[in-house]
Design a protein that fits this description.
With 352 residues, the chain is an alpha/beta fold. The protein is built from 13 helices and 13 strands. The strands form 2 sheets. The protein has a 7-stranded parallel β-sheet with strand order 3-2-1-4-5-6-7, with helices on both faces. The protein has a 6-stranded parallel β-sheet with strand order 10-9-8-11-12-13, sandwiched between helices.
């Protein structure tokens, strides 16, 4: 029986895109027929995974020591799949086939050469090992080719699925902020490329609405936004919830007027299609992968001037409300186009 090792140790971190990818892909693989494969998960919390997946998978205990070359995993697998380009866990000896999934190489544009050097070294090793390279978007493929020499190996784009694969019961969720006005929603890590400050500035010229942003905001960029909100007296119209549960996220997506996501660098941009699952109008920047993901179901900003952003939202929301049917048809279709079952089937085809 063919053995497949999934380097999946950050599966529990579902607040971030990589953890979400790991969890949703593995959950979808568990729903596929896999009796011809021995699939191993590398996890820190093996017990929790066993409770959910039972005997569908075999389990390998993750330890940070596995990052060191001498302490790498020595069992030889037929297939080793490195589920993202950053993980430092590698096989001790070359497996039968090595697959790496590249989500983005944003570090090449966001970090100094010195700071990027460790990530560059990790990815170069993976590319050198790789028999197959998969990308989560065509943009991720193009971006990787821009900065790295890719050998003549099999390459393929396998799109992420929609993380909203099922609706949770959020009716009893109690938000920790006032909802006295219609509100816009956004979610993500508070890092500069998410560009949340552009949304806050837009709210200065957009009375009648509130803005709610979820995500960890305890680092420098989050503090910068908090300071700006206080400086401009926006405490009664811009609200930062911090990290939210799945119930909280779905509550805000279900009840917002629109979902706003002005990110300037995304390998994919999962929140955009999550919001579409709730049939919400979605406003995105026209940068990197977002037009590829949103297609003609989303509205786009091409710059971040507050007046311009406000005008786009106002005009497109009015058009949406005046004639929702054609917009909703596109939104529903786009939300359903991205399927974890479809992605899992494509990865399993590669393994086989």
């Amino acid at each position: 029986m063919r053995s497949v090792f999934l380097e999946s140790h950050n599966m529990k971190n579902r607040a971030g895109g990589l953890g979400t990818f790991n969890y949703e892909l593995i959950k979808a693989i568990a729903n596929q027929p896999t009796s011809d494969l021995d699939i191993y998960l590398n996890l820190k919390d093996v017990k929790k995974a066993q409770e959910q997946f039972g005997n569908t998978f075999k389990y390998h205990q993750y330890s940070s020591l596995q990052r060191h070359a001498f302490l790498r995993i020595r069992k030889k697998f037929d297939v080793w799949h490195s589920l993202n380009q950053n993980t430092k866990v590698e096989p001790y000896r070359q497996p039968g086939k090595y697959i790496v999934t590249i989500h983005d190489v944003n570090f090449m544009e966001e970090q100094s050469p010195k700071d990027a050097a460790p990530n560059i070294a990790v990815l170069k090793e993976k590319i050198k090992r790789a028999d197959v390279i998969t990308y989560i978007s065509e943009f991720a493929r193009q971006q990787t080719h821009q900065y790295f020499d890719i050998p003549n190996v099999q390459e393929t784009v396998i799109y992420n699925g929609n993380p909203i694969s099922e609706f949770v019961d959020y009716k009893n969720y109690t938000p920790n902020i006032p909802l006295d006005k219609p509100f816009f929603y956004s979610i993500g890590d508070f890092i500069e490329r998410k560009n949340f400050l552009a949304l806050v500035k837009m709210m200065e010229v957009m009375p009648g609405y509130n803005l709610v942003i979820s995500g960890g905001n305890d680092k420098a960029y989050g503090q910068h936004i908090k300071d700006y909100i206080k400086l401009k007296g926006l405490e009664n119209s811009v609200f930062l919830t911090g990290k939210v549960s799945e119930e909280g996220k779905q509550y805000f997506m279900a009840n917002c007027e629109a979902f706003l996501f002005p990110s300037i660098r995304e390998g994919f941009g999962l929140p955009a299609i999550e919001a579409m699952k709730f049939e919400k109008p979605v406003f995105l920047s026209d940068k990197t992968s977002l037009p590829e993901v949103g297609g003609d179901a989303a509205f786009y900003w091409n710059d971040f001037d507050p007046e311009y952003m406000s005008n786009v939202v106002t005009q497109k929301l009015e058009a949406f409300k005046n004639n929702p049917a054609p917009y909703l048809e596109k939104i529903k279709s786009r939300a359903d186009f991205f399927s974890w079952d479809k992605a899992a089937a494509e990865y399993l085809k590669l393994y086989r």
